[in-house]
Specification:
Blueprint lengths: L10 E3 L8 E4 L7 E3 L14 H23 L6 E12 L5 E13 L4 H14 L1 H5 L3 E9 L1
Parallel strand pairs: 5-6
Antiparallel strand pairs: 1-2, 2-3, 4-5
Helix pairs in contact: 1-2
């Protein structure tokens, strides 16, 4: 059983200038990730952007939640392929916001298509990060037996 509250720590070492990348890490892992301002915001690119991390968090929270739900429900499957598209646009006040996220999931090798679809839907409603953001979310699922 999970005991709340939980805490997760992250670190960044940031150098000055829009043209320079920086590193970010979590204390429990040894490999830092390179972060950069993306070309869409007049940066050089060459690293993950904060927008990438946002979309990655949404997508992989879904993946982790599905793994838990499928395991506890004893749903067998061969693979789950996920892709996501994040749309950044201007909000009502004119400031940029993470407007919409489309998650496309392809589940293969399950013996019970209807049950698998129900568990994918349950996952979309149970993911704590997806439930914590105001970004519009759309889910598309394709299940093959």
């Amino acid at each position: 059983m999970v005991k709340y509250p939980l805490t997760f720590s992250v670190n960044s070492e940031v150098t000055p200038g829009i043209a320079s990348s920086w590193s970010t890490s979590v204390p429990t892992l040894t490999t830092p990730l390179t972060v950069a301002v993306p070309p869409e915001f007049e940066g050089p690119g060459g690293g993950y952007s904060p927008e990438d991390f946002y979309a990655i968090a949404l997508l992989n929270c879904f993946a982790a939640t599905f793994k838990v739900i499928a395991d506890r429900s004893k749903l067998s499957y061969e693979s789950l392929s996920l892709s996501g598209t994040l749309t950044v646009d201007r909000g009502a006040g004119g400031a940029p916001v993470m407007k919409a996220f489309l998650l496309d999931g392809k589940l293969k090798g399950t013996g019970d298509r209807d049950r698998a679809l129900r568990l994918l839907e349950k996952t979309s409603q149970s993911c704590l990060i997806l439930n914590s953001v105001s970004t519009e979310k759309t889910f598309q699922f394709d299940v093959t037996e």
